[in-house]
């Protein structure tokens, strides 16, 4: 029996290995009740965590927990209400006076004054600070001096911002904008403590804010522990002891961890699991609208698309897409067919109008084919829809959209997908106007206002008007709406501008994206806000 | 021997520069990384221009490469887009992946060689046939299938392990991922050892050793195994580099924040600083592992000499 000992050894090694893992499999959950800690999935933020530099959901999640601004959006209705602002007054919709509430401090004890805001905004707007959200300050007078399109800044501070006294400052905008105060709930407008400027590196490695949570530990790229801040003066105090965010490389693993009871909250259910989600989680699965719309954009800088007949072609293409079928079968109802250019999260008062687009956004095969042919057919004879193939399940739906168009046209080659390797490459081709066929586009709102769905994306030369569409009638209506002091009137004027888009079809609205999340039976009261971010402070631990 | 080592070290220099240049070019060809930094909207041109000059992306590629290599020799691997030093990222990622690789190597060496010896000595017997079939199965199943399956069974169904590894990644949590990473190589090690042992078992020196009346264990370990390990050591040596780089899939499945994770993130974000930095270190690991293998030959079999 020469080999017997070795066999025994191998068997022992495996046994030891399994036993050791079993030891490591224990749960590390904290207490329950108001001190319970919620564990949640997270993604590695793309940029350093600074309020004016964070433009994606993962970093935004953290800012939402550690910062409170002048306004706060109601997680259910999206309505902006005063948070740190006592009042924001204006007589002409262009000059505003902001009064900051008394009694608020940062978590390091520093008092929040009007200066905390003015300094933070000046920092965010200044070109040399490289803040990716600098354009949020673009409405304030003097922005073109501190943040010119090219060259260096000729001023260090915004001339439109004036400190009046300890608790008051005034803002002068470069144009009339009645809804401007409602934009101030966006994290970019958060106040910043002195420590941010004096020891920036230390601040970035462990940010200090004024929200219901403070950062306890931050291991960049892997995890962050947030704990309830006991002295938080606001009325939206945390209902749990804290949140542990854990970075997942793959949302499938996060979902597996949730089903194994190793994680409490996943705010991005992977598409491949959608068919199991009911069986796995039952009513612990959330699927609610988020302020995201997906569209097909067209290159108006290309002569072939900017023709009088082009309108009919675009309308026809819109009618050739069977939105119902695609959202049902590919997205399993985590998208809703779009019938305007905003999002259901705005609500009827906020400007969402179901069916505004009318028959132009409704599937009608016969009419679609006729329209496309009347308009002179698809430019170049073939529609190539560009998308990035690295993230999301863009290939699936682009193929489905093409399939739908091909069926209408009775031609298997009428529409094809044109994948681009990475998101960065896709974006650089879009922004450098290298695409000569439509591409997948999308808009995630910055703040729940109809203005945000229209002006930054479709106004002439607006920052995200990648297709370079321009229409004087549309621009005039947007200007008129912004100058309107009555909110309802402003909203209906924005809708008039949207009606111009029905006639012109500069981009085809496809569907509104929902936020989807799942949670364990250890927690209750979980919901997503309009930005599809969990409302962490309301989560209760059993 | 000394001259041989020096020659090998000198050969590493062109390989090193060649591979880093290739990676650098590949990452650059993928397009403008700044465009992806602002999400689905366009970065405002002034900020984009400033970021580009800060990361040196506004210069021609050859100049970027030279600056980069110059910095690397002073130990500066640049900064990732999230503001972290690449050396800092390496400091967190490499220890984890090295631990994972060691666990995998442990399985390869202990299980692989043991099974190889057992089957090599019992060719044609049921044990041999069973192990041969098993290794064939392991080789033919892709790692991600094994990984997902083990994760589902052990992690979710039976609750023996946590489905994901925590950010500190202690050894005991890395055992199953290590086994998954090792699985295919383990099967090859078994087969290599088996063939080699079976071949040498009939050699004259083994017969002599047995005839001398040496105990069976000594014959196997000192005489038979030592001579049979040369192809196995070659394989394991080259495998070290492959394990470290190839752990991308497994690291993703088990959420291990090691080298694979950083590389994947770097490629997605087109962060040339991260990707080139990590690959540079991996290239060095690969080269070093190969050198060590070649030197080990002489230890195992003094007949193999170097000029």
TrEMBL record, chain A:
Pfam families for this protein: SBP_bac_5
Entry-linked InterPro entries: Peptide/Ni-bd, SBP_5, SBP_5_dom
Keywords from the named record: Signal
Leader peptide range in chain numbering: 1-19
Region: Disordered, residue numbers: 35-54
Top-level taxon of the source organism: Bacteria
Annotated ranges, domain Solute-binding protein family: 82-464
Biological process, per Gene Ontology: peptide transport
GO molecular function annotation: peptide transmembrane transporter activity
GO CC, any one term: ATP-binding cassette (ABC) transporter complex
UniProt entry tagged with the keyword Signal: yes
The keyword Signal belongs to this UniProt entry's keyword annotation: yes
Name of protein: ABC transporter substrate-binding protein
TrEMBL record, chain B:
Family from the record: Belongs to the binding-protein-dependent transport system permease family.
Family annotation (CDD domains): TM_PBP2
Listed transmembrane segments: 12-31, 96-119, 131-154, 174-192, 228-254, 274-300
The keyword Acyltransferase appears for this protein: no
Coiled-coil parts of chain: none
Pfam families: BPD_transp_1, BPD_transp_1_N
Protein name per the record: ABC transporter permease
One GO biological process term: transmembrane transport
Gene Ontology cellular component terms for the protein in this record: plasma membrane
Residue ranges annotated for the ABC transmembrane type-1 domain, each copy included: 94-297
Localization in the cell: Cell membrane
Gene3D superfamilies: MetI-like
UniProt-listed InterPro entries: BPD_transp_1_N, MetI-like, MetI-like_sf
Keyword terms: Cell membrane, Membrane, Transmembrane, Transmembrane helix, Transport
Lipid bilayer topology: Multi-pass membrane protein
């Amino acid at each position: 029996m020469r080999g017997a000992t070795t066999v025994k050894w191998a068997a022992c090694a495996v046994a030891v290995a399994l036993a050791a893992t079993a030891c490591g499999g224990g749960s590390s959950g904290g207490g329950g009740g108001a001190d319970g800690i919620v564990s949640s999935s997270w993604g590695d933020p793309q940029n350093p965590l600074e309020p004016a530099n964070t433009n994606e959901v993962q970093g935004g999640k953290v800012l939402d927990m550690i910062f409170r601004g002048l306004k706060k959006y109601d997680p259910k209705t999206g309505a902006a209400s005063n948070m740190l602002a006592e009042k924001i007054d204006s007589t002409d919709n262009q000059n505003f006076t902001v009064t900051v509430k008394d009694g608020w401090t940062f978590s390091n004890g520093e008092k929040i004054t009007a200066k905390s805001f003015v300094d933070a905004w000046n920092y965010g707007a200044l070109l040399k600070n490289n803040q990716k959200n600098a354009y949020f300050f673009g409405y304030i007078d003097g922005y073109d001096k501190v943040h010119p399109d090219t060259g260096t800044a000729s001023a260090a501070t915004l001339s439109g911002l004036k400190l009046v006294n300890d608790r008051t400052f005034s803002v002068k905008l470069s144009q009339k904008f009645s809804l401007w105060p409602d934009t101030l709930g966006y994290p970019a407008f958060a106040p910043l403590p002195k420590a941010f400027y004096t020891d920036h590196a230390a601040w970035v490695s462990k940010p200090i804010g004024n929200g219901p949570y403070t950062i306890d530990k931050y291991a960049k790229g892997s995890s962050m522990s947030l704990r309830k801040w006991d002295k938080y003066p606001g009325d939206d105090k945390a209902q749990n002891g804290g949140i542990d965010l854990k970075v997942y490389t793959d949302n499938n693993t996060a979902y597996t961890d949730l089903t194994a009871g190793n994680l409490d909250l996943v705010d991005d259910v992977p598409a491949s699991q959608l068919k199991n989600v009911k069986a796995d989680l039952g009513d612990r699965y959330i699927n609610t609208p988020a302020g995201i719309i997906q569209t097909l954009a067209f290159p108006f800088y290309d002569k072939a698309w900017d023709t009088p007949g082009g309108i009919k072609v675009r309308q026809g293409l819109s009618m050739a897409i069977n939105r119902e079928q695609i959202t049902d079968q590919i997205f399993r109802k985590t998208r809703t067919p779009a019938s305007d250019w905003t999002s259901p999260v705005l609500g009827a008062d906020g400007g969402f109008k179901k069916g505004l687009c009318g028959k132009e956004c409704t599937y009608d095969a016969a009419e679609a084919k006729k329209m496309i042919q009347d308009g002179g057919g698809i430019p170049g004879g073939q529609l190539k829809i560009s998308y990035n193939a690295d993230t999301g399940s863009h290939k699936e739906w682009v193929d489905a959209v093409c399939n739908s168009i091909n069926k209408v046209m009775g031609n298997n080659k009428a529409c094809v997908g044109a994948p681009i390797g990475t998101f960065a490459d896709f974006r650089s081709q879009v922004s450098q106007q290298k695409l000569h066929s439509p591409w997948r586009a999308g808009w995630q709102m910055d703040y729940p206002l109809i203005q945000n769905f229209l002006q930054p994306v479709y106004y002439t030369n607006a920052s995200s008007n990648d297709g370079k569409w321009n229409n004087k009638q549309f621009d005039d209506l947007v200007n008129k709406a912004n100058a309107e002091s009555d909110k309802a009137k402003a909203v209906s004027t924005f809708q008039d501008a949207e009606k111009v888009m029905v006639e012109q079809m500069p981009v085809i609205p496809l569907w509104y994206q929902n936020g989807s999340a799942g949670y364990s039976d250890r927690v209750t009261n979980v919901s997503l806000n309009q930005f599809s971010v969990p409302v962490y402070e309301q989560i209760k631990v059993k | 021997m000394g001259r041989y080592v020096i020659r090998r070290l000198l050969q590493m220099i062109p390989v090193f520069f060649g591979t880093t240049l290739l990676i650098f070019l590949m990452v650059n060809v993928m397009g403008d990384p700044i465009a992806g930094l602002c999400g689905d909207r366009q970065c405002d041109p002034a900020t984009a221009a400033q970021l580009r000059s800060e990361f040196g992306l506004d210069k021609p590629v050859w100049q970027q490469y030279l600056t980069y290599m110059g910095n690397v020799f002073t130990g500066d691997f640049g900064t990732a887009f999230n503001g972290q030093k690449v050396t800092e990222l390496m400091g967190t990622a490499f220890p984890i992946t090295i631990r994972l690789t060691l666990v995998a190597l442990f399985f390869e060496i202990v299980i692989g060689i043991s099974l190889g010896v057992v089957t090599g000595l019992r060719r044609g017997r049921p044990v041999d046939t069973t192990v041969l079939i098993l290794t064939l199965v392991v080789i033919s199943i892709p790692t991600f299938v094994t990984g997902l399956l083990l994760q589902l069974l052990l992690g979710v169904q039976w609750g023996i392990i946590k489905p994901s590894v925590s950010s500190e990644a202690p050894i005991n949590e890395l055992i199953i991922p290590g086994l998954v990473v090792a699985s295919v190589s383990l099967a090859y090690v078994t087969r290599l050892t088996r063939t080699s042992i079976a071949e040498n078992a009939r050699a004259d020196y083994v017969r002599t050793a047995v005839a001398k009346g040496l105990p069976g264990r000594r014959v196997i370990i000192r005489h038979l195994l030592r001579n049979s390990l040369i192809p196995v050591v070659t394989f394991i040596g080259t495998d070290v580099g492959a394990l470290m780089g190839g752990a991308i899939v497994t690291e993703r499945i088990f959420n291990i924040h090691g080298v694979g994770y950083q590389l994947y993130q770097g490629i997605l974000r087109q962060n040339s600083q991260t990707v080139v930095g990590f690959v540079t270190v991996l290239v060095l690991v690969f080269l070093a592992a190969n050198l060590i293998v070649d030197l080990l030959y002489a230890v195992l079999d003094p007949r193999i000499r170097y000029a």
